[in-house]
């Protein structure tokens, strides 16, 4: 039995719903959808590869509505026995007026019932192995205490990465490629669309938010085609072996990457880190030293950028990007806050950091639709424990004077690193070069700005936010001394400003400081 591609499209336009009636699969075929490839030469391709992936509206040459929920690059893994799987990564996406996560991802092992023109209606499925989860993220569907909890996901973390077994073979040109799928049995359309339709891996998804907006039960379960771009399978030139974090004024993600000899032998190869597409770090591989865990590539992440997209690119000297990795400060912190193997103090620090990040986002207006503290319990987001009296003991001091120059004020910078800037202005025709400036005993050169000259107390560690740093200005005979800390600024913000967002971020910074101090 064969049908034209345009007829398949017409059938699918009516929707593949479980209510479609039809015969069983036995009258069309008897083999499972996913079969074990017998091609022994596949084992010669043992290793990891990057490959473009997408979710398709099964039997139609167009992307599924859920495609944006999956990152469009997967990892193809082939073991020494020639068994293959694709690791897929999923993310939160918008459905109608709401947002949701993937609940379950299944591979279809065998179609048990078909509808009109052989369209699959029911199948035996097996859940894909979960590689990583969105630990700590609860929404209205998986929160077991929610009145709208979905029994299919309640009390469970949403999958972030899953591993799906796939069948591979070696084509006539010696390239790894996929095995024909179910639709190949019917397809008689153009050659250009063959891969899009006939090499799809038939899968099934369950999306809680789609179930909630459906008019009938079962609306959240859909067949989808996993489309793998076999023409663009590329051997991985690197491997992200792990990520650690060091908490200073903000969080620094330390990404450990193993590199192939093809990369390390390239004198121009580099690793580029970006936040929301903007380059924040660029290092030459030849200037780095490999550790036991791989090359350590740090990325400093300001509190306001905790939910921003962070990418790490491995580039060859000619500019070719051979591998790209996505890492997340908020995911890492959530893992610590709710994962196993961490102390209560470490969990408290992670929660305080997430909370500070959320209030920093609101203060700076960055990614306010996805706040870092959105999934914290209300008690962990509360700032009520910080009152005016809590900060009242943090008061800076100043003494002495130097003719021709005066202290104008200070600011606390939270936009990138946690820093304090102290501003000074000259009087008359005095020359700034006649004055000596120090920060904690180290000579510094002031910077001119529209607000006057300033000196900076740089990169204040979270656990030292309560410390005072000494700044001096002298002209040889007289000295002005200023002792000032980040918490002094927070105290002033509470008493001198009416900006509620500034009040909140100052209080959250104080709680972050106390949690960091407890972990010293």
Count of alpha and pi helical runs: 10
- Fold-level CATH name of the largest domain: Immunoglobulin-like
* Mean pLDDT across residues: 85
Estimate the global geometry from the Cα principal axes: elongated
Instruction: Give a quick account of the main beta sheet: strands, pairing sense, barrel closure.
Output: 10 strands, antiparallel
Binned, the helix content reads 10-25%
The proportion of residues in beta strands is 35-45%
Outline the low-pLDDT stretches: 1-40
Gyration radius over CA: 29 Å
CA(first)-CA(last) distance:
72 Å
Describe this structure in words.
The chain is an alpha+beta fold. It folds into three domains: 5-234, Sandwich (Immunoglobulin-like), CATH 2.60.40.1850; 248-331, Immunoglobulin-like (Sandwich); 388-518, Immunoglobulin-like. It contains ten helices and 31 strands. A hairpin with a 2-residue loop joins strand 28 and strand 29. Helix 5 (329-338) runs antiparallel to helix 6 (344-364) and helix 6 packs antiparallel against helix 10 (500-518). The longest helix is centred in the last third of the chain and has 21 residues, at 344-364. Residues 1-40 have low confidence and may be disordered.
């Amino acid at each position: 039995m064969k049908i034209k591609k345009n007829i398949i499209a017409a059938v699918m336009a009516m929707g593949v719903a479980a209510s479609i009636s039809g015969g069983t699969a036995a009258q069309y075929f008897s083999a499972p959808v996913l079969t074990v490839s017998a091609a022994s030469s596949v084992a010669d391709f043992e290793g990891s590869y990057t490959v473009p992936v997408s979710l398709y509206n099964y039997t139609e040459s167009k992307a599924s509505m859920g495609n944006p929920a999956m990152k469009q690059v997967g990892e193809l893994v082939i073991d020494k026995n020639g068994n293959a799987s694709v690791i897929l990564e999923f993310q939160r996406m918008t459905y109608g007026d709401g947002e949701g996560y993937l609940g379950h991802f299944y591979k279809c092992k065998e179609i048990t019932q078909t509808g009109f023109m052989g369209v699959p209606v029911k199948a035996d499925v097996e859940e894909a192995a979960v590689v990583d989860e969105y630990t700590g993220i609860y929404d209205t569907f998986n929160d077991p205490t929610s009145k709208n909890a979905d029994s299919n996901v309640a009390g469970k973390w949403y999958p972030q990465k899953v591993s799906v077994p796939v069948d591979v073979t070696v084509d006539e040109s010696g390239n790894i490629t996929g095995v024909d799928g179910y639709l190949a049995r019917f397809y008689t359309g153009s050659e250009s669309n063959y891969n899009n339709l006939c090499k799809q891996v038939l899968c099934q998804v369950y999306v809680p938010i789609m179930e909630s907006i459906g008019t009938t039960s079962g609306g959240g379960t859909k067949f989808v085609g996993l489309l793998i771009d076999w023409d663009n399978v590329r051997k991985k030139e690197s491997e992200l072996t792990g990520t650690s974090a060091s908490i200073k004024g903000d969080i620094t993600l330390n990404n450990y990457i193993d590199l192939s000899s093809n990369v390390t032998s390239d004198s121009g190869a580099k690793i580029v880190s970006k936040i929301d597409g903007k380059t924040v770090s660029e290092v030459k591989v030849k200037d780095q030293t490999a550790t036991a865990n791989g090359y350590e590539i740090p990325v400093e992440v300001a509190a306001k950028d905790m939910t921003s997209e962070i990418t790490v690119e491995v580039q060859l000297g000619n500019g070719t990007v051979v591998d790209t990795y996505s890492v997340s400060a908020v995911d890492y912190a959530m893992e610590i806050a709710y994962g196993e193997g961490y102390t209560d103090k470490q969990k408290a620090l992670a929660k305080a950091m997430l909370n500070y990040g959320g209030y920093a986002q609101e203060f700076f207006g960055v990614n306010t639709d996805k706040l870092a503290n959105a999934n914290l319990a209300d008690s962990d987001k509360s700032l009520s424990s910080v009152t005016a009296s809590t900060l009242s003991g943090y008061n800076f001091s100043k003494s002495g004077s130097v003719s021709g120059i005066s202290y104008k004020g200070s600011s606390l910078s939270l936009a990138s690193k946690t820093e304090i800037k102290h501003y000074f202005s000259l009087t008359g025709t005095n020359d700034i070069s006649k004055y000596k400036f120090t920060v904690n005993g180290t000579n510094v050169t002031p910077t001119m700005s529209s607000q006057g000259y300033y000196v900076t107390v740089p990169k204040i560690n979270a656990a030292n936010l309560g410390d005072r740093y000494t700044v001096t200005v002298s002209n040889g005979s007289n000295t002005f001394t200023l002792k000032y800390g980040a918490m002094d600024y927070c105290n002033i913000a509470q008493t001198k400003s009416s900006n509620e967002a500034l009040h909140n971020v100052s209080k959250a910074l104080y709680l972050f400081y106390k949690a960091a101090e407890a972990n010293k």
